[in-house]
Amino acid sequence: MKWTGEYRVNANDVDCNNIVSVSNMLRYMQDSANFAMEEDGPSYIELFEKGYAFILSRIRMSFYSPIYSHENLTVETWACESKGVQFNRCYRILRDGRIMAEAVSVWALCGVEDRRPHRVSEFDFGYRQDAMLELDMPARFRIPDDVEMRLVGERTVEYADIDINGHMNNTHYPDILCGFIDENMKGRRVISMGISFVSEALLGETLKIYSGSQDGINYIRTLKSNGQVNVEAEIITEEI
User: Fold this and answer.
1) What does pTM read for this prediction?
2) What are the tens digits of pLDDT across the range 33-53?
3) In whole angstroms, what is the distance from residue 186 CA to residue 175 CA?
């Protein structure tokens, strides 16, 4: 069973190509998950007040067609069978009954204070479930060793980036990363993006951003000041 909600695209959700950006597509998805959690219980805020927070571990998103300003969308989300310390959730965005985007994600439920991950077996959540989407969702992927990764810039985590967990919210990453790939995004759109979240980027942290490409795939790695990997991503685009 899936949670379903209706959305209308805001005019400021589109990018330089007049289509909804990946970060805003991800916001629709995660907003729907928050609504589903509120209806089924416990909500995200209820969990946070008890000392827990869902932290995104990795996500794979596929985009089948552009979405434009003021279009009406149906967004679906559902939890999937989970085990160990991995909580699985899927998303789907439709326009006029046609699937426009899909995503699969893996989350960790961590202590707010100690960041210790908790096992699925510790909880009995009532979130509605359905089958996992058949998207390519590898274990935490690695950028191929033979890809030349070049330092292309830096990005400091600012007030506008952070959420109640004190780190850069995961929905900010896609658009930031698209700004550092080898391809100019003017006249192009993302058709596939996978992000592996390795460690949190806290307020004031300056990230070094490395980029490379191979066989039509753009790769991004961000490093924190202590040399620890923040995220790794692979992005595929096409001409509009």
Assistant:
1) 0.95
2) 999 999 999 999 999 999 999
3) 13
